[in-house]
Amino acid sequence: MAATRKVNDLISIEEIGAIALICIDNPPVNATGQAVRQGLQEAIETLNSEGKAKAIAVYAAGRTFVAGADIREFGKPPMPPALPDVFNIIEDSAIPVVAVMHGTALGGGFELGLSCHARVGIEGLKVGLPEINLGLLPGAGGTQRVPRLAGIPMALDMALSGRQVSAKEALEKGLIDRLVAGEPREVAVQVAEEVAAGKLATRRTCDLNTPKDDKALDDTAAMLKKTQAHMYSCHKIVEAVRASYLPRTEGLKIERQAFIDSMQTPQRAGMIHAFFGERAVSNIPEAKGPTRPLEKVGVIGGGTMGSGIATACLLAGLQVRLVEVAEEGLKRGIATITKNIDGAVQRGKLKAEKRDAVLGALTPSLNMGDLADVDLVIEAVFEQMDVKKDIFTKLDGICKDGAILASNTSYLDINEIAAVTKRPQDVLGLHFFSPAHVMRLLEIVVPDKTAADVVATGFALAKKLGKVGVRAGVCDGFIGNRILAHYSKTASYLVLDGASPMQVDNALEGFGFAMGPHKVGDLAGLDIGWMTRKRKAATRDPAERYAGDVADKICENGWFGRKSGRGYYVYEGGATVPNEETLAILDQVRAEKGISPRSFTDEDIVDRYMTAMIVEAARVVEDGTARRPLDVDMVFLFGYGFPRFRGGPLHYADTIGAKALVERIEAYAKEDPHYWQVPAILARMAKDGGTFADLNKEG
Q1: Distances (CA, A) of 30 to 8, 102, 318
Q2: Mean pLDDT of 411-431
Q3: Is the Cβ–Cβ distance between 55 and 193 less than 8 Å?
Q4: 556 inside domain
C-alpha cells in the first residue's frame, strides 16, 4: 500500500513498501526556493531518522525537473537552509538517493541531481550550469561534482558556456547513469526498486577523485586572461574547478567563496539587470490589451531583410506570402529563405522532419494583390520615403479591413507613411535587425494615430517570433539608430583628431563589444551610412562639425566594406587587415582640414564613445521616444551588441554616476560646445543624486 504525506506545500513523501519517493511540486519550473530547500532537507532527514526505506527517488511534478533558482529571491537576503548544505545532506544520506530528471535540470536543479547517488534521465532531458549568464558560477557543488563524474574539460565547458547538454551526451560523459522513456513518477518507482534490490549501482559523487588535468585548467586560464580579462566569474570558475582536486569540504568552501565574490561584481549586476530587463521591457499596458488575428503574414521585398523576416515568421508557424516585383528577385528571396531554413535544421533549431512543412507555408508571388487576405503585411523595401509611400498607397486599396500595415524602416517617419493611407490607425513600424531571423530585437514603433490593438498585436508578434519587443516613439532612427547616429560621430571625431580606426575598434572591443564600430560599418555596408548622410545633408546644422568626410571618400571609391572586399579594412582570403589606402585618405582629410593629430589612450576612446552614447540615450528617455531607461538598455543589448555584462548604456551610466558624467561632458565641451551638451535629465540627476534605475522603478 502507498502512503503519501506532505512535508510542506511543495514537497511530499510517498512510501511504497521498501522505497520512498520525494516529489517536488513547485510550478511552473520547480525552482529551488526556500520552501523547496527546506522541504527537501526535512524529507531526507525524516526518512533517514525513520530508517524504513531502502532507497529514495527524487522526482518532480509538471513539465520539468528543477530548472534553476527562484528568481523572486534575487536581490534579497538569503534564507536558510542554503542550497549547498541541503545537497550535502542528500549526498550524506545513509539511504541511497536516486534523481529522476526530466525536461530540464539546470543550475541548482542539476546540482541537486549531482548530489544524489545515481541519476536517471528521461528521454528529452537537458542539463546545464547556466550561472555564467548571470555573471556567476555554480555555487552548490557544480564545479566540484561535475569534474568527479565527467572530468575537468567537461566541467569547464559546461560552466563557462552555460550551454544545455543533451541527455545522450550527458549519458556518454557519465553525468547520468541511465536514459529511459516514461513518466517521472513511474520511472522513480522502478529505479528506486532497482536500487533497493541492488540492481542499480549507487555511489557518493564526493567519494570519487577528479581525474588530473592541469593542462586543461592552465590552457583555459591563459585563454580567458587573453580574451576575457574584463570578466570575473569565468576566472573564478577555473579556480573553483581546480579545487575539485581537494576533499569535498575544502573544494566546496572555495567554490562558495568564489560565488560570493562574483555576487559583488558590477558584471553580475549588469547581467542581472539584463535578465530582468528582458522580461520587463514588454511589461507595459500597451502590450497587454486585445490583439488582432495573426495567422497570415505578407512580406514585401525578397532582399536580405525581407527574406529574414519571412524566415522568422515561417519558423514561428505563420503562413507567409512573399511579394517581389521581378521574377529574379523572387527566386533569390526563395533561395535565401530556403538556405535560412536549412541552416535552422543544421543548428538544431528546427527538426528535419518539419523542414518541408515550414517551407510549404511560404507562398511566393509577383502580384501585390495576393495580399488581400493577410492579417499583417510587413513592407521591407529600400529605405526611401517615396518608394514606401507608393507601396502603402497601394496596400490601402488592396488589404482587407483590419489588416495591419507595417513598415520595416530603420529611420523614416512612420507618421508620414501612415498619412498616405485612409487607415492610419492600422499602420505600425516594425523595425527588425539583420539578420532578421537571428537578431532578437524588434523595435515596435508607434505612430500618433495607431490603434491600441495594433500596438498590442505588434508585441504579440514579437513574442511569437521569440524576439524582445521594445516600444519606440517616432523620430529619425527611433531609439537605437537615433542614438547610434549621435555616438558614431564620436568614433569619427576620434579618428579625425588622431586615433586610427583600428585603435578605436581595439579599445571598444577591449571594453566588451564583439566588434568595433569600423568593423561593424564594414560588415553592415558603408554605403548605408553614406546614403543616410546624403539624405540628411539638406537639414544638416551648419554649426555642427561634420563627421562623414573620411567615410564619404571611402564610399566614393566604391569601397563599401566586406561586400566589396575593402572598407576600413581589406578582406582577402579570410584575412582582415587595415586598408592602407583608407589610412592615406585619413591623412589627406586631416591635412585639408588643418588637423594636427594627437594621441588618445584606449581609456580616452572608451570614455568619449560611451559618454556620447549615454548623452543621446538620456535625451531619448527625456523626450519619451523610449518610455524607460531599461528600454534603451534592451535595444542595445539585443540589437547593437552592447556587452551584456555591462547591462546596457544607461545601466552603465549609473555605475559612473550623473555628477561624473556631467563633469566629463563639460570638459569635452571646451573642444566642441555644439556636440557636447549636458541633457537636462542628466543635470537634474547630478543635482539631486538620482539614477536611471530610479526612473525604471517609476516607469
Answers
A1: 14, 12, 32
A2: 96
A3: yes
A4: yes
Cα gap 443→393, rounded to integer Å: 23
Sign, CA dihedral 472-644-273-440, equals: positive
Query: Does the pLDDT at position 312 exceed 60?
Result: yes
Residue type present at position 97: V
Across 149-165, average pLDDT: 97
Mapped onto helix, strand or coil, the DSSP state of residue 671 is coil
Q: Which positions are catalytic?
A: 111, 131
Same domain, 487 and 456: no
Average pLDDT for the chain = 95
Quick one: 485 and 470 in the same domain? Answer: no
pLDDT at 604 over 80: yes
Looking at residues 22-31, what average pLDDT do you find?
A: 96
284 falls within a domain: no
The reported pLDDT for the residue numbered 699 is 61
Return the H-helix or E-strand segment holding 338: helix 327-346
Instruction: Tell me, yes or no, whether 448 and 525 share the same domain.
Output: no
Phi, psi angle pair for 249, to nearest 5°: -60, -45
**Would you mind telling me the total number of residues written for the chain in this entry?**
699
Q: What would the pLDDT profile of 488-547 be if each residue is shown by its tens digit?
A: 999 999 999 999 999 999 999 999 998 999 999 998 889 888 888 888 888 888 888 999
Per DSSP, helices labelled H in 469-594 are 480-497, 501-511, 517-524, 526-535, 549-556, 580-593
Q: Residue holding cell 577523485?
A: 209
Contact 116, 218 (CB under 8 A): no
Q: Is the pLDDT of residue 385 over 80?
A: yes
Q: How many domains does the chain have?
A: 3
Query: What's residue 534's pLDDT?
Result: 87
Q: pLDDT at position 575, please?
A: 87
Residue 377 belongs to a domain with what CATH number? 3.40.50.720
Q: Among 47-51, 197-201, 381-385, name the one with the lowest average pLDDT.
A: 381-385
What is the C-alpha to C-alpha distance for residues 85 and 65, in angstroms, rounded to an integer? 20
**Domain co-membership, 469 together with 485:** no
Distance in Å from the first CA to the final CA of the chain = 56
Q: Is 485 in the same domain as 471?
A: no
Give the Cα separation of 267 and 544 in Å (integer): 36
pLDDT over 80 at 2, yes or no = no
Mean pLDDT (whole number) for 78-100? 96
- For residue 277, is it within any domain? no
- CA atoms of 124 and 110, how far apart (whole Å): 15
CATH code (residue 641): 1.10.1040.50
Same domain, 246 and 384: no
Pair type for strands 376-379 and 296-300: parallel
Give one DSSP letter per residue of 382-415, joined into a string: -S-HHHHHHHHHHHHHHSPTT-EEEE--SSS-HH
Q: Which domain holds residue 362?
A: 295-478
CA distance 261 to 265: 7
- Tell me whether residue 135 is in a domain: yes
Indicate if 247 and 307 belong to the same structural domain: no
DSSP conformation class of 300:
E
Residues near 502 by beta carbon (within 8 Å), at least 6 away in sequence:
518, 578
Indicate if the pLDDT at residue 74 is higher than 80: no
Among residues 430, 367, 377, the alpha carbon closest in space to that of 403 is found at: 377
